[in-house]
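Narrative summary of target 7.
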Amino acid sequence: MKLKAEDIVFFIVIGLALFVLLWLLHGSPTLDSALVSIGAFIITSEVLLWRKYFEIDKNVSIGFMKVKTDLDKIKEKLDDIESLLKNKK
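Modeled conformation, tokenized:
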């Protein structure tokens, strides 16, 4: 599985959120600015996760549509075979 730019951005955002948390524990940023930064990073990561989820869901639904079409074709062929067998009797 190849990493896309979106995946790399996700990991960078999570890393930045952890960095700000550790920096806050060390005492450097103010609480308000740290909360805003962490909130922005977490929201960004959630949006990226939801985009990935919907992309996978779309691909799965397209795959199921293709399988349904194939199964419909197989059913047609089986119906044709059944009608041929009935005609021979």
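Residues 5-88 form one domain.
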